[in-house]
Each structure stands twice: as C-alpha cells, then as structure tokens.
Amino acid sequence: MALEIITDIASLRARLAQERNIALVPTMGNLHAGHIHLVRLALQQAPCVVTSIFVNPLQFGANEDLDNYPRTLDADCEKLAAAGAQIVFAPSVSEMYPVAQTMCVTSPPIANELCGAARPGHFDGVATVVMKLFNIVQPQTAIFGKKDFQQLFIIRELVRQFNLPINIVAGDTQREDSGLALSSRNGYLSNAQKQEAQRLHRTLQLIVDNVQQGNHDYAAIEAQSSQYLTQLGWIVDYISIRSALTLMPANAEDKELVVLAAARQGKTRLIDNIEFTLS
Amino acid sequence: MALEIITDIASLRARLAQERNIALVPTMGNLHAGHIHLVRLALQQAPCVVTSIFVNPLQFGANEDLDNYPRTLDADCEKLAAAGAQIVFAPSVSEMYPVAQTMCVTSPPIANELCGAARPGHFDGVATVVMKLFNIVQPQTAIFGKKDFQQLFIIRELVRQFNLPINIVAGDTQREDSGLALSSRNGYLSNAQKQEAQRLHRTLQLIVDNVQQGNHDYAAIEAQSSQYLTQLGWIVDYISIRSALTLMPANAEDKELVVLAAARQGKTRLIDNIEFTLS
Q: Does residue A156 sit at the B interface (CB-CB below 8 Å)?
C-alpha cells in the first residue's frame, strides 16, 4: 500500500472522515529509529496511522535552531513507507498558521522548570500545536516518546485538563549501542562530540545506580554529576532527580523516580532521562 | 420524550457515543427566552441537542457575582423539556475541574478591550471552559447568542485558530417589548432600575440611526452617548462603534458595524449591542 502524503487540512479531513480508529504520531520529521518505533506502536493501536511532520515555529525560541532544523521529507517518507505507515500529514507553516496564532494553550507551572527554564514559551508552543493537531486528526490514540519526558508529562496534562478523548501511549527511548539516545539533533554533532555525547546517558545510569544503592542526597548527586560533566566540557542546563508521577523534585518518600538531564556539546543541546523505581 | 439530566462526563460520553450529529448550547443556566431561542436553533441543526448548564468559576473575577449568580436547575429543566431539548449536561465544579486548571486557553488581544477591559481574564476563562465542553460533547454545531457579541467573536477565533471541526451558529438577541435585552442579570434589577435599563438599547438604536444618517465622528458619538447615560445615573464601562468583522474600532471605510455597550445600574452590569450595515 502506497504512503499517502497529504499537505492540507481539508484533504486530510476528507481522507479521515470514514476512519473510526486513528492513531496519531506527531513528529518534526528527520525521522530516526526512535520515531519509527513510535509508528510501530501506533500500528499496534489502530488500523489507521497518521504521522504528522511539522517543524512548529511556535515551540522554538528566537535564538534556537528553527531555520537549521533538518527537513528531510523524502527520506522520512521512505522510512514511513517501509514501516507500513499509511498517511503522512506534512502541512506548511501557512497551512497550520494562516493567521497569527493569538490564542494559545498555556502550560502548567512545571513547564517553567527543567527544559522550560532554558526554553521559555517552548511548552506553550508544543501544547498549542498538539491541540491543533488533535483537532485536525481527531485520533483515538496519540503516541509520544519518553525521551521528551517533560513534554510527555505536559501532553498527559493537556489531555486530562482539556478532557480530550484521546489515549496517550508512550514509546521507550531508542538508543545507539553506546547508549546515546536517538535524536534528530545528534546530526549536529562532530565525531568527537558524538563520542563524548555517550557520556550523558552513562552519567544518568550512574546516578540511578547510586540512588538505588541507597544514596538519597539528591541535591548532592545532582551537583556532583553536573560538575563532572562541566569539567569535561559540557554546558549543563540541568541534571535533576524527580518524581516520575508529578515531575516535582524527588524527596525520600518518592518511589517512582526519573532522572533527567539537558546539556550541550558546543551548540547542540541534548536531553535524556531514565525512569526507575525504588523498592 | 423525557429530558435526560446528566451530571458526569463519563455518563455523557456513554450517552453520546452513538450520536453522529450533535448540537451544543453552552449556558450558565437561569434560562430565559433568549436561551430557549438558542435551543430551538440547535434543534434545527441536529437531531441530538445537549444544553450545558455550568456556572464557570474560571470566567468570574474576584469581585464579581459568582456566588450570587442565579442557579435554577429545576426551572431550567422544565423550560428545556417544554422546548423539546433532550439532554442537559449539568456538571459540578469538581466534575469540570477535578484538579486546578493550570493549563488554559489564552484569548486574542481583542479580549483585553470592551468587556475584557473591565473583566481581566474573563475571556480566557470562557475560552478554556468552551474548549473543555467541546472536547467533552464533541458537537458538530455549537450555538452562541449575539448578545455576548465579543464572546461570540472570540469563540469563532477559538474554532478557527484551534482547527475545531465545529460549526458555530449565532442566535439573535431576544428582547422584552421595551427593547431590553434578555439577561439572567436582569433579575438583579429593582423595578426602577429595570425601567431605566430600557434606555441602554434605545441609546444604541439612536447611535445606529445617527451613523446611518451620515455622522461618522464615532469618537464624538461614543463620548456624547456615554456622557448622556452617565448623567442619568449609569456607570458606563464603554460605548463603542466597531467593525463587526474585526471588532477593531470602526473607521470610515468599515461598512459592517456593531455598536456595543456595557453599563451598570447600581451593581448590575448590563451589556447590549446592535449590528448594522452602511450602504
């Protein structure tokens, strides 16, 4: 079955009008095996899978990489076709924002922490475009990756607080053998940076081991880890041990935890996280 | 056919699961003939009409009449049954807001003018609850009254900017023989205030006549009308001649116009408007 590439909202609505069970995979394109994993999860959820490819200006800050973000539609479509996806929705900016988006969804307070601290307005932009995509596609299920753990958390809040009749399914982070989380932004890295980038996940794994061995001085662990990476040339935005249930800083009572990090190699900002449980 | 009164979201969703064409009439209850007119319009649009009755705390300011707003569910249901409506959705505050609503829809800049100038945050509260109701009911059509002209304008923007697959139908303002626009807040008026309240619509009609006779000094007309009502004991929030298409202050080129007013009799805030066309 050939992949259908649809670029306008009216055509997509017409195509989906008779579908009763749709799964949506929202992406910004430049698809890698992490995205394809989400598409495969979607195909398990619903007979009709829509993968959206849209580099959303609203979620980029003024000094971020909107203009340089890799746009690789032809290659993306080949990968989607190979994975058995049926429909790609790849709208232009003017199709998604024909007039200035003066009405937005505001994010909860947690959106100002972690990635939001360095990217003001980012999660408002994410929540707004996801709300639009949900209304355009009207899926029964939507798939998001756990690599963007804070985004996933905010999307679940969006669904809950706006009563969206949509089931959110989370896909595990896909990694290279080195442990490096797959990311479109890995393509910005030099060979030496990519070599060093592996250390981010290793550092998170060391933190998990440390906590699971009984060290609950989370502030000290965070500070030491951050200092360690900084000494190795990283610019660390944050390393934070949090409740996986609330995303608030973890305390001694929390058993469901996640350690999250964002750090830069040169200009390239990488994020990663590991969820874990204390017994 | 008996009126079905549903108070929880899960039951409403179950009831509506098999409906293919639904019209929603969002109200705050205390129904009068203006609301019933909207219900009749809804019945012309769809075989299944849901009237929501919910006094939305999010759209009331700290010093407004949330606590005193009339709640008359039994009488409302009698009127709806008589009109042939099928379903009332009357949720509690905790059903609509089981957790703090930390994610909201922000309104466009026009929301800070006219009624929004005196009611900061009001239209964010309206847009947020309407988005929630749309997601709960998933109607094909929703009916709003023209008496809340600015609200109607913002709801149309909500639908447009968030790609909601919902047709918005506007119902004409219903009036007493005196011209007074029907409003739940009319119930707050003393007999003398209600007598005086007629003047609001008469003043708007005089403005329309004045403009249609060729007076295009809108600022002067607004100032004179405001002064006139103030001298008669009104507290005037605004009288404004605007483009009916953009809600921006009208200029000489605009042909589709609306004159809007908000003014207080004692503590009771009344609004009204008249749309008109210049040939």
A: no
